Amino acid sequence: xxKKRILIVEDEADIMSMISLRLKSRGYEVYGAETGLVxxxxxxxxxxxxxxxxxxxxxxxxxxxxxxxxxxxKYTRIPILIISALGEESDVVVGLELGADDYxxxxxxxxxxxxxxxxxxxRAKVDTNEINxxxxxxxxxxxxxxxxxxxxxxESYQVFISDKQIILTGTEYRLLVALLNAKGRVLTRNQLIxxxxxxxxxxxxxTIDVHLTSLRNKLGKMxxxxxxxxxxxxxxxxxx
Length: 240
Ligand code: CA
Fold this sequence. Notes:
Oligomer: single chain
Largest sheet: 5 strands, parallel
CATH architecture of the largest domain: 3-Layer(aba) Sandwich
Strand order of the largest sheet: 2-1-3-4-5
CATH superfamily of the largest domain: Response regulator
Shape: elongated
Bound molecules: calcium ion
Helix content: 25-40%
Number of helices: 8
Number of strands: 13
Order of helices and strands: EHEHEHEHEHEEEEEHEHHEE
Distance between the termini: 31 Å
Strand content: 15-25%
């Protein structure tokens, strides 16, 4: 099997070499780009399997690079992991909305980085994920989403925990389905508002928090599956 190619777009030499060494030791083929513009060219030339993207970059910022990559059909499927500095949460939110897959804030633990990289590559490969959210059909032929003891019949809109039905509002139901379908990716508040309430409703960010609190309460012992990502949004926790 050929080695997976990872492109690191990062202008800080120390961080670049640290990440690069670790990923090489894990058997990846690693390339570096020290500016956004070089990063963009490298993506086109190398067609990497995954991109690690710093946001504050010379020549072309990380968000602009992301915008250009995601606007080209050829590159929409390359997993992109943002590596951001502390205090760049609002840029991270924009990055996720532009189509980045995940993010880590500096300083990060190298093992966590490797785990995230592995997870993104696995997800890209099978287009499912390590969290094991599965689409299946129950005995009545209804389509369902299953995660641990949680089961959602997506045709009858019924939600069960350990086969006991729980009653959700329409908004709570759509939030839960959106999070499950994201399969561990972080969804920003705006993305959740779009998914659950619709673009045309005027909603403040905090409304989503209220719906999520209520949803968590109804999930009872499974409330932990919804993880708050501080300053950014929510995701389905991987520890189920
Ligand atoms: Ca930087």
